[in-house]
UniProtKB/TrEMBL annotation:
Keywords: Cytoplasm, Cytoskeleton, Microtubule. Belongs to the TUBGCP family. InterPro entries: GCP, GCP_C, GCP_C_sf. Pfam families: GCP_C_terminal. It is found in: Cytoplasm, Cytoskeleton, Microtubule organizing center. It comes from Paratrimastix pyriformis. This is Gamma-tubulin complex component 4.
Length: 165
């Protein structure tokens, strides 16, 4: 997990974009990027587990493991769907509308208004992805990391109980 958490984005903006994409803004995008990457990794690992566990779904002894994986997948799928549609997509459209201007024809915005719209956009993304509140964001990240640990544990235990592919 530690290697993935160090992955980030680097961007060398040229004038005038370096006035918008400052090192602080890039750092915020990296926080968001790492969170979205973690969420997608967990989602994919849980789907892999489903494929493996579907072979032993009839084994009643292992049904609690199946149920737990299913609940974890529900949580991550719901969170990912919420973030994709209700946060990223919505906030991007709001940013585009703010840049175009309230009349929709554009041309009436100056640089400071665009910079302010971008700051509001990025702030809304971080807030609505639970990343601006350390306690809540930490809990969500911890849940996702527990899901990964579950997947890793089932990979290790699978051959021992005879259900791993």
């Amino acid at each position: 997990m530690a290697r993935w958490s160090r992955l980030g984005l680097r961007y060398q903006a040229r004038w005038p974009l370096q006035l918008i994409f400052t090192p602080e803004v890039i750092a915020k995008y990296n926080v968001l990027f790492r969170f979205l990457l973690l969420l997608k990794r967990v989602q994919l690992e849980l789907q892999r587990q489903w494929a493996a566990q579907s072979q032993w779904a009839q084994n009643r002894r292992l049904m609690p493991v199946w149920v737990l994986r299913s609940r974890m997948a529900f949580f991550t799928d719901t969170l990912q769907y919420f973030i994709q549609l209700d946060v990223l997509d919505l906030q991007f459209h709001r940013l585009c509308d703010a840049i175009r201007g309230s009349d929709g024809h554009g041309g009436s915005r100056d640089f400071e208004q665009i910079r302010a719209a971008h700051e509001a956009y990025l702030g809304a993304l971080l807030s609505q992805c639970f990343l601006s509140t350390p306690m809540v964001g930490g809990i969500v990240r911890h849940i996702l990391e527990l899901c990964l640990q579950f997947c890793q544990a089932t990979v290790c235990l699978g051959p021992k109980i005879g259900w791993w592919w």
